[in-house]
Amino acid sequence: MPVDYHLHSQFSGDSKTTLEAICHTAVERGIAEIAITDHMDYSYPDMRPDHQIANIDDYFDTIARYQERYKGVLTIRTGIEIGMEPHHLASCDAFLKQYPFDFVIGSIHECCGLPVSRAVYFENKTKEQAYETYYSAVLECVKAFDNFDVIGHLDYCKRYYPGEYTSGDHFIAQPIVEELFRTLIAKGKGIEVNTSGFRHVSQMCMPHYDILALYRQMGGTRITIGSDSHVAEYVGFHSEDTAERLKQLGFDHISTFEQRVEKKLSL
Ligand SMILES: [Zn+2]
Ligand SMILES: [Zn+2]
Predict the structure, then answer these.
(1) How many other C-beta atoms can be found within 10 angstroms of the C-beta atom of residue 111?
(2) 17: phi > 0 → left, psi -120 to 50 → alpha, else beta; which?
(3) Quick one: DSSP state of residue 169?
C-alpha cells in the first residue's frame, strides 16, 4: 500500500525531474498512488523564482495526460505545495480557488520575511528562539487560513539549524505545537510525515515520531506520507516503513485526497 504524497517535478523551479521518471519509478517500486505537489510560494518580498510553477495550465494538462497513460496502474493526484506566510494568505487563497487541485500541502518556508533554509534566518537567535518563531508563524497561518489539507514538514527548521542537532530538539516549543494540533484537529485539517528528514542530519522524519505520537494522543488522525522528492531516485523514500511506524503509533489509516476530499487507506 505504499503511497507518496509529496513529489516535485520539472514544474517546480527547483526540480528537473520529468513526470515520466516519477511515474515510472513509482510503478517500479510498487507504489499505488502519488500526488504531484509542485511549489507555489507566496514569500517575502516576492515569489521565490525557484518555488513557483511557471505555467499552471501546462501543469494540469501534463498531469492529466499521465493520469490517462497510467490508468489502472498508478493513481496520480494533482496537488500543490503552497508556501505560506501570514501576510500572504489572501494571495494563497485567491490562487487556490482558481484551480481544481486534489490536494494542498500548506508549508512555511519563509518566516518573518526570511528563508528558513538560509543561515540569515538563524542569525541573532538562540535555537529555542528560532524554533519558537517558526512554530508561531505556522500557528498564525493555521489559525487564519483554511484552504489547505495538511501542514508540510512541521519541524522544518530542524533541517536547517546551522548549530548542533540534538535528539531532544523536537521537544522545543512543545506548548506551541500542542496549540497547533488543537487548532488543526478542530478545523479537520492534518499534517504530513515528510520522510526527507531521513536524508538529513537528524536522520528522522519531519515531524519526529514523538511529535507524531503526540498528534495521535491529542486525537489527530488525518495524516499523509510524502518523500518531498525532487529527483526520481527518492520517490517512495521510506514510505513503507513510515506507514508501519504510524500503525504502531496508533493510526489506523493514512489519508489520500481526491478533489480535496479525504479518502482513508487502512493501515
Ligand atoms: Zn517544502
Ligand atoms: Zn516540497
Answers:
(1) 22
(2) beta
(3) G
**How far, in Å, is the centroid of ligand 1 from the Cα of 263?**
23
Please return the burial class of 47, using the count of CB atoms within 10 Å of its CB with bins 0-12, 13-18 and 19+: middle
Estimate the crossing angle of helix 127-144 against helix 174-187, to 10 degrees.
20
Residues 6+ positions from 193 with CB-CB distance below 8 Å: 205, 206, 207, 212, 223, 224, 225, 226, 242, 246
Lowest-pLDDT range, 140-149, 196-205, 211-220?
Answer: 196-205
The answer to whether 110 and 43 are in contact (CB under 8 A) is: yes
Contacting residues for 133 by C-beta, under 8 A, at least 6 apart: 111, 112, 125
In this prediction, residue 149 has a pLDDT band, given cuts at 50, 70 and 90, of very high
Residues forming a β-bridge with 12:
53
d(CA 227, CA 199): 10
CATH topology (fold) of 3-266? TIM Barrel (3.20.20)
Torsional sign, CA 129, 222, 209, 157: negative
**43: pLDDT strictly greater than 80:** no
User: Distance from the CA of 188 to the center of ligand 1, in angstroms?
Assistant: 21
Residue carrying C-alpha cell 519526529: 208
118 CA distance to ligand 1 middle (Å): 14
CA of 120 to the centre of ligand 2 (A): 21
Q: How far apart are CA 156 and CA 158, in angstroms?
A: 5
Q: Where are the domains of the chain?
A: 3-266
What burial letters (b/e) apply to 23-41, b meaning 16+ CB within 10 Å?
bebbeeeebebbbbbbbbb
Of 73 and 48, more confident = 73
